[in-house]
Design goal:
Layout lengths: L1 H5 L2 H11 L3 H4 L4 H8 L3 H15 L17 H14 L1 H8 L3 H11 L2 E6 L31 E6 L5 H9 L6 E4 L4 H17 L14 E4 L28 E4 L18 E5 L26 E6 L1 H6 L16 H15 L3 E5 L7 H9 L5 H11 L17
Parallel strand pairs: 1-2, 2-3, 3-4, 4-5, 5-6, 6-7, 7-8
Length: about 400
Amino acid sequence: MLHGLLCSAPACDVLLPFLDVFAPFLGACDPNAVLAARKVPLRGALLSRLAYASKTTPPPAPMDPTHPFPDLPPEIIIQIFEATARASCDGAYAISLVCRWARDIALLHLFATVVHRSKPSFSVTLSSGQRQPSRSRPTGPLKQGHLVRNLWTESTGVAQPSAEEDILRVCPNVETLALMSSSLRALWQALQARAAASRKERRAPDDAFLHRLRSITLITHTFRYDWHFLVGAQLYDGSQLLHNITHLRILDMKVSSFCPHNLLPNLTHLALPYLDLGNNFEQDVLRLPNGVLEHRSLKMIVLTVEEEKWLTNPWYKIARYPGKNTASPREAFRTLAQWAQQRDDRLYVVLSPRTGVDPCHEWVDAARGGISLWDAAAEARANDSHGAGLPPSYPKTARR
């Protein structure tokens, strides 16, 4: 089996770094041989190490010429596969191609985080209005939907609530959900559809559906009426869907400053785009949605600042404001973080998204085990590293 794995180029590429960890099981590696192997293609390096291990570790029985590589205990192979699949999506994909049981290991990691960006079924050209060839919706359910734990679903162009309802219905175990505010209705429709299907089939409703959902990220601004569908919506265990939400982030509040924190009584973590709220240091007034600071269960309120806006938009610079020594964007940001903490110890300020980083990619990195927004905020305060990575001076191209 191991020999078959080594014959897979993708698997070789991703497994090579993990062989150092499991070297004691393969035999002591000669440093000179390792250095030499680094100069040849990855598959050659991998084969060289195993070949050297087979030479230095006497086999308990004569080697079978059809299997020139040492046999490893299945437990060790499973550990290698799990470590590889956990390390990266590419690694998980490579492992999934090895064999059926290895695929079962990889799928848990490969489908744990999914980004679903649907497009309209037809597009209209601005010049003639002629319809382009249609793109049909998938007719069958996603077979691996039950493995999804983190889901980003977004419609571009004309919204397709039915498509989003389909993707939500087949992901009953989602824990972290990012969606457009207009898709909240699709979330309610998916909940109702699951319950209706259970009644039609005369069976108990699926008590796992949306039972794990704890975190919501709103990709777009939101209005009060977007949420009224979910108010009072109950799960099979009797709990209310909105009462289970503990983490909420809103990425855009330029059009509407509404925040549904009053609908989420158990909310502990809230993130809002600070610059979208019209805050002004000159007046020393902190603008937040009404009632946020009075929310009893909130433990952390993170004010996110888009790095590109902070550096290039003059409305957000505070260097010229009296009483504030902020001659650089880095010092200005530190001043902002300190100023916010003085008003409420639960207020944190972080740079997010950073320049050139798509919010979706940032969300995916955190979902796959990277540092989360909440951890980044706590770490910046603990290490006094606010504004790390910002240049010492404003760029010359900044508008004035």
